[in-house]
Amino acid sequence: MLFKSLALSALASAALAQEAQPQPDLTTLLSNQTELSNLTTYLGLFPDFVGQLGSLQNITLLAPNNEAFATFLNSSAGAALAQNDSALIQAVFSYHVLNGSYSNFSEVAFVPTLLQPPQYANVTGGQVVQAVPGDNSTAFFSGLLANASSTGSPLNFTGGVVHIIDSVLIIPQNVSETAIQANLTGVAGALMSADLVETVDGLTDVTVFAPNNAAFEAIGSALPNLTTEDLTSILTYHVVEGTVGYSTLLGNTSLQTVQGANITITVIDDEVFVNSARVVVADVLVANGVVHVIDNVLNPENATATANPSEETGSPAFSGASSASDIPFTSGVPTPTASAATESAPGATGASSSSADAAMPRMTGAMGAAALFGGAALVLNM
């Protein structure tokens, strides 16, 4: 009996001693992970930024492993890192820092990051990363639906948590560039034709419902005779400003568009419809919000068109229109240089192929990196 009591006491003391062991600071933790040597080497170039990270509390760092860095550096998107573009490198690192300490994720979440407006982001509260929990790991979706997965167990440090991931996150690009790279060339060309590229790219906190190429092709006969005013009305009817409607937030509701008229959001058996159009790819993150790809072009003159989930593809909202042999508006649109999974329906959370070759994002503001990171640190320490 005495032996048993002593054994239990020893076990309890060992457990308390283990709990009492201080957690390492961020620099120490990272330097002790051999699979993160590339990351620590790059972070060593920015001691001020590392100092800011180390002083923050309640953060989660998504740390790309060595293989992820090697793949990224050999891509067109990684050229800026290889050329030591300090502002962009720091922006990339900032996008890997989540605002909050997350050991795990129990449900799909869109988590704000250290990447704050106005540089490379125009989303109130900071650009987000989508976290999708799985059986053995968490998938993190970034720009162009690029997918990085966590590897191993989360690591704790004095300021929060580190998750090692197998790919470098891609900073979301603006709407027009995303449309090109995601092969939504009909939308990209239509925006160019209506001279709306700068307008849409410059909006804050947007939700864009972007018709896929098949949707434009299906109403091809109705498009050549549109005036610029008509086309502008149609395109701005697909844009909601002031609300970033990630899939987790979309419900049965009505939203006012930039055009002025309302669209109707309907959720039926986990499928999302916008008027009569079905969302076929959700949650494509962009610099100023989110894009959902839909299978029909919305018509502001037919706002009462309703969803029919029994149909594989909804009826076009333009009565009497017939299909074209080519995708309208695509003449002169640049050829995509990246890959994104926008041709199949992934459901509410999206699916992805790797987008390591994505073009790097364009700045959304003129502030320097020092101002960006100083502001970000203040936000996270409020």
TrEMBL record:
Gene Ontology, cellular component aspect: fungal-type vacuole membrane
Assigned keywords, A-Z: Signal
GO biological process terms held by the UniProt record: macroautophagy
Domain FAS1: 60-172, 207-301
Region spans: Disordered: 302-356
One Pfam family in the UniProt entry: Fasciclin
Domain of life: Eukaryota
Chain coiled-coil ranges: none
Signal peptide limits: 1-17
Low complexity bias (residue ranges): 314-325, 334-356
Bias-annotated ranges (Polar residues): 302-313
Protein's UniProt keywords contain Signal: yes
InterPro entries assigned: Adhesion/Biosynth-related, FAS1_dom_sf, FAS1_domain
PANTHER family documented for this protein: FI19380P1 (PTHR10900:SF77), PERIOSTIN-RELATED (PTHR10900)
Name of the protein in its database record: FAS1 domain-containing protein
Lineage of origin: Eukaryota, Fungi, Dikarya, Ascomycota, Pezizomycotina
